[in-house]
Structure formats: structure tokens, C-alpha cells
Amino acid sequence: MNRRNRLLPAALALATATALLVSSCSSSGSEDDQDSAEGTPSNSPAATAPSTPGTPDATTTAPGTPVPGATAPGTTAPAPGTPAGSPPPATTPGTGTPPGSPAPPPAGARWQPTPGLAWQWQLGGGVDQSVDVPVYDIDGFENDASVVAALHAKGRKVICYINAGSWEDFRPDSAAFAKSLQGSDTGWKGEKWFDIRKLDQLRPLMATRFDMCRSKGFDAVEPDTIEAYNQNSGFPLTADDQLRYNRMLAQLAHERGLAIGLKNDLDQIPALLPDFDFAVNEECAQFDECDRVAPFVKAGKAVFHVEYKLDTDRFCGKAKSLGFSSMRKKLELDAWRKPC
To answer: Which residues of 277-310 are buried (b: 16+ CB within 10 A; e: fewer)?
Structure first.
């Protein structure tokens, strides 16, 4: 499902979603179709390979084969003085590793995306692999390991998009989520908010989804709809409930060696900044909120940012000054992009 999780107050959520869907369905004659996008048209063919292969990742001679001494772009290097081949000291993220969970990887082992990395975010249609950027964010369910491997072979890092905050009736694991976990409609067809207070039930289900991301070779995860506490979820959720749930997600990702991005949830950025490795933001310029996301960049962490309604001349100047990785996208999040 394409996510546009710059969620409005509960009273407007359904009406806004409906209006956006109507707008996107009639976009064939919109200004989006007139804009250039680095040669990437809105109807780019699925999984199109570039005519000239992308530059190989500096850290690999073949997919998954490290080059001695090399450090991947956006990845934290070992501490000075560390003997060659020695792993950094191990750390346990979050509040501890629950029984049966994977052992935490060494500190610094996971990807650490740094500010300014260009990116592509495509959740609709087969992935157009010809966009020459170092980071791709794609749907974790709808893309198999071969797509991730192909992007890795071109030197890309790949983020696994999943929905972590609401039930979707079209996902292959939808039957695993009990009715008691499902609350009010989110405003998108076939989706209902999760009761995020029930960590004992949601933790193993989310762990399975994160395991899927890891098994397919993804470098990071982007969990969506993780600010239910300020929505009409059907449950009496509090900000503390959301903090506990989001930190649980960060712990699950880190235990699996995956980086994790904080999707929107602006009010909780000060509390969650230490737990998340990057941010994904929608429409902070549209709502004059980009300064609230800037702490990620100040902490040396990337902010992957999109706008849907504003053209690039209305937000790129400030986005660049803040160190964001920004672009304009169509609401359906297909291959089209207009970067800053």
C-alpha cells in the first residue's frame, strides 16, 4: 500500500485520504506529468536496468564480498586503533534482548545513513532500478531477495518498507493478527490501527516481518504508521504507549543488524532520536515543520524527505540548508521523482 503518513487530525483523516486518492487518480493531466525527473518518467518500465551498469559499491568486489579496509558510504568506520579484522565491542540496543531473539550484532555493524545521501522511494509498481542514487526505499513484501541483490550489485543500500502500526487486509500475513489487535479504520481501504499497547502479541509478529527484511538482504527498515497515539485509533493510547512501541521496533531492528528510520512522529523526535538511525519525513515543508526534523542531521543521521504538493523551488533551498535528502514525489509513490 502506498503510504502518505503525514496524518491529519482524526476528524479530517478520512476526508483528506479520499480527496488525495481522487486527485491521484486524475493526475494524468497534472503538472507532475509535465515536470522532468532526471529522465525517470512516471510510466517507467518495471525493473529496468541501466544501459551502463552503476558504479560498484566501494565495499564489494561481488555482491556480499567485502573489500579489505573499505568502508561503505554512510557507514560508521571502526574506532581508531582497532586491530584489523577485530569486531567493535558488542552492545545491546533498547532495554535488553528477550529470550529467543537473535544475538545483537557488534556496534557499528549496521548501516548508518549520513545526511545528504540521495534516495529513491518507490512503493508502487515494479522497482525501476535505473535511478542513479545510493539509497532505495521499497516495499518489503512486494519485492523478493533478487531485487535487493540486484540493487546491491549496483552499489545501492536498500530500505525495507513495512507497515508496523496498522493492519492491512491484503498482506500475506494478515490472518496472523487477532481481531482484538485491530481498531478503527485508518482512512485507507483495508487498514485498521493496531492496539500498540499489546506488545506481547505484536512483538513476535513484527519480529517475523523484520526477519523477512533481513532474510531478503535489506540494509534497513522503514516502519510506517507509528504515531497512532494522536489519531482516532479506537484505543485509549498515550504518548508513552507510542514511545514504548516505537522503541520496541528499534530494538527488533537493531538486534537483526538493520538500521531503522523514524517515520514522521514529529512530537516524539526529541525522545526517540537516540533509538533511530535516520528519519523519513513527508511534507514538513508543506506544514512548516522541517526545523523539527533537523535534530537528526545535527546528530549525523540522514533525513529522507519528500513533498507532494510543493514544487522543488518552494522547498529545496531550505531543505539543502538543513542537510536533508529531499525530492518531490507523486502521491502514488511510483518511480517518478524530482530531486532537489
So the answer is: bbbbbbbbbeeeebeebbebbeeebbbbbbbbee
SS3 (DSSP) at 254? helix
Q: Are strands 220-224 and 157-163 parallel, antiparallel or unpaired?
A: parallel
Kind and range of the H or E run holding 224: strand 220-224
| Angstrom distance (rounded) from CA 146 to CA 215 | 11
Give the pLDDT confidence of 84-132 residue by residue, as tens digits.
333 333 333 333 334 444 454 554 589 999 999 999 999 988 999 999 9
- Amino acid 314 reads R
- CB contact at 8 A, 262 and 299: no
CA distances from residue 183 to 39, 163, 264 in whole angstroms, order as listed:
43, 15, 21
**Which residue(s) pair with 138 in the sheet?**
122, 160
| pLDDT > 60? residue 55 | no
pTM over 0.85: no
53 Cβ neighbours under 8 A, 6+ residues apart? 154
Query: How far apart, in whole angstroms, are the C-alpha atoms of residue 271 and residue 103?
Result: 25
Beta bridge partners of residue 161, listed in sequence order: 139, 222
